[in-house]
Amino acid sequence: MGVTCVCQVPVAEGKSVQQSVDIVHKKLEQLGAVKQGSFWVDCETYHPTGNVSGQPSKLLYVMHNSETPLSCMGLFEGGPCLIADANFDVLMVKLKSHFQNAKAHKVECRGSRYRYCDFLIKVGTVTMSSSARGISVEVEYCPCVVPGECWNLTKEFMQSFLGPSVPELPSVFAAKPEGLFAPSDCVDTMTQYLELFNKLRKMQMPGSNVR
Amino acid sequence: MEAPPVTSMPVTGGAVNMMEYLLQGSVLDQALESLLHRLRGLCDNMDPETFTDHELVYLLKGQQGNPFILRARRSLSHPTSPWHLRYLGQPEVGDKSRHALVRNCVDVAASHSLPEFLNEMGFRMDHEFTANGHIFRKGVMKIVVSKLSRILVPGNTENTERLSLSYLVELSGLAPAGQDTVSEDMRSFAEQLKPLVHLEKIDPSKQRH
Question: How is the quaternary structure described (chain B) (predicted)?
């Protein structure tokens, strides 16, 4: 597990989501990246049913990542995160009277996985209730776990195929008490996906082929 | 760097339902050595394994019905190992000829942020204790001989007080729902431990809560 950056790529002017994804794939292939299978990331939302003294209920997100197929991650936005094994999903089924699964809010991101030297690039289509909401790009620099030591390199690499859509340093790294030099882990990756999914969830659905 | 195997559908809840079969008994401290000696002879050949664990029992009070109980356990002798979170369902009633207590069981390995995460979910710690003792295996069965201790100051596992002058002996087996063969193995194994220890089916719901 290296340092990952997850960002959104806007749908190209006058093109569909699928066409924009193909444009990114083409740029990666031109660079010399090699396609290596596919990936998926998903996120389910649970509402606590108990009334916690009038406070707004904290949503529980349960996420999965194909890079770690035997694991399951539980996250509270801005709160503690849990890394557990796949049986955590079975436990959530047992807890269904206390935590309701908002099935309509399930978000999935699927796409192709590319490898370019020490980088892993995943270009995915984010869907909610089978409608495409946007495009995500995840870039992972595998040899390093400290964001402060490889952010500049990662940003430069991203510029070579994303052009002007390159994001700033993900806030999840800057927000840590030890800052950029704290080692990164899968919770940082999933937090970034969660932020992206929540942002796309709130956006209005783009028209199918018309921009 | 190769992509991990990706199934076309993500593996979600609804995986195999595991059932735990349990028989319990106890021995006084003075009888421990004889029991361990018998177990070493009967069980699978392995290095003697001792353990020291800290278990916290969490409750989630719902709007109605009984609170939901989860047991979080960590090893004090292997502090970097993951936490073990366990859900145990109500004992299955009906078949009186069943020799062991049978209940649904879900085991989850979790990271060290577990206590904080459970609190955020709304769980509150009801009680905690430490257990130390020996563990043996015979095929799929597990035999645990443990001394339970009360924690005097919450969170401080150094300062404990033994709960009794005996050791708890538990014989358990896990099997997928529907497969009852482990129950018979457990019954015959329990016979071999008599008269050192009498292992029986003890229904936790009949205990004082």
Answer: Component of the Mediator complex.
Contacts of A58 in chain B (CB under 8 A): 120
A65-69, B14-18, B88-92, B163-167 — which is least confidently predicted? B14-18
The residue ranges of every structural domain in chain A are 3-202
Say if residue A201's pLDDT is above 90.
no
Q: State yes or no: pLDDT of B143 exceeds 60.
A: yes
What lies within 8 Å, CB to CB, of A120 at 6+ separation is A2, A113, A114, A138, A139, A140, A142, B1
pTM for the model stands at 0.88
Q: Which of A20, A3, A34 is closest to A162 using CA atoms?
A: A20
What architecture (CATH level 2) is domain A3-202? Beta Barrel (2.40)
What ipTM score was computed for the predicted complex, to two decimals?
Answer: 0.88
Residue in A with minimal Cα distance to B105: A91
What is the average per-residue pLDDT within A18-22? 92
Residue A162 belongs to what H/E stretch? helix A147-162
Which of A39, A76, A93 has its CB closest to that of B120? A76
How does residue B132 score in pLDDT terms, banded at 50, 70 and 90? very high
B2 and chain A in contact, CB less than 8 A: yes
Contact A64, B31 (CB under 8 A): no
A211, pLDDT greater than 50: no
**B63 vs A50, A94, A99: nearest CB:** A50
Q: Would you tell me how many other CB atoms lie within 10 Å of the CB of residue B100?
A: 25
CA–CA gap between residue A41 and residue A197 (Å, rounded): 10
- How far apart CA A114 and CA A157 sit, in angstroms, is 14
CA distance A89 to chain B (A): 5
